[in-house]
User: What shape does this take?
Amino acid sequence: MKAYRIDELSPADIQKITDRLNDMSLGSELQSLFWLPVPDAMLTAEQKEHKPLCGPYAMALEILDDGISLEFLVRARNKISCRCVRYASEELILHMMKYVDGMLQDLHIRL
Assistant: This one.
């Protein structure tokens, strides 16, 4: 799996991140997995077409013991398997990496 991973975070930093994601109601059925929404403007034409049946679309952010991992796979939240589930574009990857970095900066987590 292609992913953006940030490690060597302290337990306090992990808790700050977890609290923020929970406050944003981005949690999943798994305590350590969160769904970061993909902006509609960054969906592919096929994903926009499939959105009524397959969407919303999100990328998984996993909380690890000492870090976080953002998967680059764009998942359809209402369908497990469809051709609209695919790896993010370079533009979306960069956008989501900046989003995660911005969140860490807002939480005063130094990398």
Remarks:
- Residues 3-106 form one domain.
- The chain has a mean pLDDT of 97.
- Helices lie at 11-23, 45-54, 90-106.
- The longest strand covers residues 57-63.
